[in-house]
Amino acid sequence: MSLSSHIQELKKKHKHLSEHVEAMQRSPSADDIEIAKLKKQKLILKEEISRLSAH
Q: Which one, of 38, 50, 54, 40, lies nearest residue 11 by Cα?
């Protein structure tokens, strides 16, 4: 897998997580702990994308 395709995959995962978090936050029965876990995953992906893009 090339670097650019790997970065694109990470961006897709980040976008999917963002959409999932937004949907969960709109739900009245949202699990705050699960939302926090997803946000942490988003942050890890964002940092990885930034690190790889810098190369």
A: 50
Model pTM score: 0.85
Q: How far apart are CA 13 and CA 25, in angstroms?
A: 18
Tokens (6 digits) for 8: 């694109």
Residues 6+ apart with CB under 8 A from 38: 17, 20, 21, 24
Q: Which of 48, 42, 52 is nearest to 15 (CA)?
A: 42
Amino acid at 52: L
Distance of CA 48 to the CA centre of its chain: 10
Give how far the C-alpha of residue 31 lies from the chain's centroid of Cα atoms, to the nearest Å: 17
* Interval 3-42: pLDDT, tens: 999 999 999 999 999 999 999 999 888 899 999 999 999 9
